[in-house]
User: Fold these one by one.
Assistant:
Number 1:
Amino acid sequence: MIGFIGAMDEEIAELVKLMSEVKKEEISKVEFYKGKLSDVDCVLTKSGVGKVAAAMSTTILFENFDIEGVVNIGTAGGLREDQEVLDVVISNIVAHHDMDISVFGYPLGFDQDYTAYKADDKYIEIMKNIIEKEDRVFIGNIASGDSFIHREDQIELINKNFPGALCAEMEAAGIAQVCKHYKKPFIVIRSLSDITIKEGNDLDFNTYVSLASKRSALWCEKFIEELKNQA
């Protein structure tokens, strides 16, 4: 059974519509939608915003459902000049950009086991093949923290400590850390809502989130179909 995770109602609404035999459950105040996607059992979780909420929700997901792997969907801010709004980032490595114990000799960066987590190569390849047919996709590293990144000093700090980061967001590393603990594969898919280093590139949120939700729902449907075909 695949677990899908999104932070907000707006990010999961279209995926719920594609599911059949949906049963909504609330466990420890976290919302779960159990059902089928392309006739395959799955669970969709609304995690809430931030790494702690995401980690808590992922833990509850694993403790209450027979989950074989996780797909995290949502939005992010792009960190590169060559990116555009609605481009897609697929995770390679996800890291906590706001976790810092370098004073004790542990350097920051995407190559540190204590703060960085590798997405599943099989999941990456499947999603890449699905998304690149219709949308522009980047595969690389994602910086995750508990602040909305919009100031120049925030961007500079991420680029300094986590060079090569493609985007910044607020849940993925919490989810990835729990997946590593439970030894479950994961992948993170992020549609870019803005490019943090550009001016005047954002869309109206309601327009954007509707587009992003519809696209990610279709990707998840095709992803689970391909997993079924490869089984």
Number 2:
Amino acid sequence: MTVVLINGSPKINNSASGILLEDLRKFFPKEVQITEAGMHKECISEEGLRKLEHADAWVFAFPLYVDGIPAHLLSCLVQLEKSHVKDRKRCISGIVNCGFYEGIQAETGLSILENWSIKAGYIWGGGIGVGGGGGLAMMPSPKSGKGPKAPIDKELKVLAGNIMEGKAQRNRYVSVAFPWVLYKMAAQAGWRQMIRANGGKIRDLGRNVLTAG
């Protein structure tokens, strides 16, 4: 079996999507051939299309952008739909992460990918909506199934098993095992640090761009 892990984040390095795909990879046995593909721009190269062409399953991972799919990745999906890289037996799965604490916020993003898969003639295998994606890059990496990412690891293991068995699953939603209050505090501290680093002031975080002079 050949599975292509597709990173649809605009960030090439250290993205939450990349982290989730690396964690998913650990749950496939050695006999499964894993290939990685990056869709970081609005067009897929010929080399990228060749990677996808003969795979049994594609797993897309991307961040939630305004309750939907990032624009560059949407362009890639349109390209795939028009290309020769089609196999009606191919299974499509998705992992959508969001900065919101609640994984259910990714429901619309997963639904868009599901609708595209069906329209393009593929088999929808289900997916996972992951809340707390904004903190994944800063979390420790303990043994799988331990620490703040333990609930996510559990869902990734289920997804990998279903992909190998050719089973479709219902879209599932999960959040990090980290108190909501602390997650919010960490996010606020991160915004303050970023705005200072870019020459702004903390009070600028509350500016209304429609009325600011």
Number 3:
Amino acid sequence: MLPANSSDPLIPVRALNQINFCERLFYLQYVEGLMAVNAYVEDGSVKHRRMAEISAPCQPRMEDGVIHTRSVSLSSERLGITAKLDLVEETDNKIFPVEYKRSAAPAGGNPWWENDAIQLCAQVFLLEEHLGKAIHEGVLYYIGSKSRSVVPMDASLREKTLHAIRRARELFASDKTPPPLPVEKAHRCEGCSLVAICQPEETRMLTGMKTLRRNAASGVTRVMPTRNDGAVLYLQEQGSRVSKQSEHLIVRCEGKEMQKVPMAAVRQVLLFGNVQISTQTLGLLLQQEVDVTILSARGRFIGAVVPAPTKNVTLRAEQYRLFSNPAATLRLSQACIRAKISNQRTLLMRSLRSRGGDVSVPRGGDSPAAEEMARLANSVERVEDAETLLGVEGQAAHVYFSNFQQMIKSVGGGFDFQFRNRRPPRDPVNALLSLAYSLLAKDAFAAVLTVGFDPYLGFYHGSKFGRPSLALDMMEEFRAVIADSVVLTVINTGVVQEADFLRWGNACQLTDPARKRFFEAYEQRKAVEITHPVFGYKMTCGRMLEVQARLLAAFVRGDISEYKGFTVR
């Protein structure tokens, strides 16, 4: 085997386990730097910590006539690998590594998993180089079955391990994500912490691979969670301050404790206006992968404090390359705007269809507005440049907002809507729309950052200074689905009423109590499950944003040949 190049990163020995188990998992985790924690990962971490706490790292300790040394760190520049060995056992005549696994050993047949044996063999390589002596066996201890297996270091296992090291180097040097496992090995995806990032079934379907199951209702079997149950913490009490106390976030105002929230239950924090947060709290939230979004007191999105960007340099490089290609950006923009117009039309049709009154008045798809929007949506594929596409989008927006008042059931003049205006919004409906779009923008910003994109370079909104263009691109498909829908809901159900608005001059905004109710309605809308038009499974509106961002990433990397915008039925 050729020695590793000194400029190559040392490969963690635990990564060789993934090479044998699933190359796509290895690439996502170690090349792109994507990591997610689920119950299995956390359980394994806890069990390893318990083992490590038995004695101090690298301190030999005699136990029942055997010398035990725990948490031994070793590296090899020659092999290009590094590891922290769980345990090294030494007797009078032999020494060998012991690797702990949280899972159970295989039932029947071979008493260990091959990928675990490869990881163990790499540890033997490190010990042999460090000690200058041959080691003929290692031990795998499976915590789940409480079984201890002695693994011989034979020639076959050594060659498989060297092959895994070579393959790991090849993947580190590659800019192409490996395909998902074939359907025959799809059972390995169960319990994988990266399944929501990897999207194996979705990728199989879009690339023409065989999928797990097909039926009339669903094109693929969903293997990712439908929702993220973490809470979004909205903080808008002016003059309040957020700090941490043990494992809780404490919100105080004028010295009085107003709220106490378990930190583990929070997935995002939003600060509106004059709300302070301590640097210690901010740092801890970032360590736990919790975004902190900053908005003005009126709800205008200002920015976000997010964890360090992913190591996914390849995706960003491909983003810069592809988004400089006018033909490619036009294709993406067409998919995005067609979906946007289609979703606006669907919301309009549903609202008109549910209206009472004169049955002779066209409803739903028979209305002139719906017919015109269908025509505009179909014309998107025929446009030849971005400027023409902007014109089509503008025409559709004019038709849509010209009929927006028809979707409002509230009687009286409090919610009269004539046309879209902003900066500042001059009437209650526009104030609600602006706030909803601001919240949607921060969610789209978080989604594209999570995937690994540069949020400031878009395919449709370009790269204007200081504007998160890609986040604005991604939110287009969801304006009607999430933002417009929640605005109509709070008006038509009386959650927000005319008295809930403050007016001065030409400006209009919600009162603090009404804004709190609006935030609740917005999160409720994001939690509603809807069906994905391509994959056929149900998922919350909020999770769909991330699904679309990951599909865009797959298109940008070249994993799939086409990006399809999200549409509701």
